[in-house]
Amino acid sequence: MPDIRSIDDSVKWKLATQCAARLPAMYERVFSPVVGENYDELEQQVWAGLSHEAFNIARSLHLPVNNARHLADSMKLVLQILFGPEYKGEVMDVGEDGAVIMVKQCPFVTEATAIGASPDRAFKRCLAFNLSTQKSLNPNYKSRYVKALCMGDRQCEIKVEREPEHGNKTDSKKQA
Predict the structure, then answer these.
(1) Would you put residue 165 in left (φ > 0), alpha (ψ -120 to 50) or beta?
(2) What is 8-168's CATH number?
(3) Which of 15, 44, 95, 152 is most deeply buried (CB count within 10 A of its CB)?
């Protein structure tokens, strides 16, 4: 009989995150009919709260967040840590201080589909989590979704860029 030490860490990680990725869709299927129209709002609060864990992970690993590329890379890494090896994507530079996180595979979409739940409900969770995480890592930047897998697009595209008012303040301080 194998014990926990005989199972490869990558297998344990994959199995644990697969189970964790399935939980939101399972909760939704059970609690949404009971809670009714307040379910999405309550769930978004949970996911926004979970962003504190993402912040703590990034801080404990000393991940850089000082520009759009670093912020996007750090967010992608934290997402992979939390949501597992099935979370696949890449980061591309856009412009002078912008980046796009492109998600090619999302475990929340995969697991929702696997249990017969609608993957489009994952968007509100993801939006609450990612926007809260990004703001907690660096409030001088903003994120917006351009595309979303769970809404039927081929991939997610999350654009990260400097807030305009922060760019102007930094530029004026450099000139002073």
Answers:
(1) alpha
(2) 3.30.1380.20
(3) 44
Q: In 3D, which of 53, 52, 73, 49 has the Cα closest to residue 63?
A: 73
Which two structure tokens, joined as six digits, stand for 158? 């999350």
pLDDT digits (tens, 9 = 90+) for 82-117: 998 889 999 999 988 999 999 999 999 999 999 888
Q: Where are the domains of the chain?
A: 8-168
User: Is residue 136 within 8 Å of residue 55, measured between CB atoms?
Assistant: yes
In this structure, are strands 98-105 and 88-94 parallel, antiparallel, or unpaired? antiparallel
Q: For residues 113 and 65, give the distance between their C-alpha atoms in angstroms, rounded to a whole number.
A: 33
Distance of CA 58 to the CA centre of its chain: 13
Q: pLDDT tens-digit profile of 44-55?
A: 999 999 999 999
Reading the block at residue 50, the tokens are 């979970």
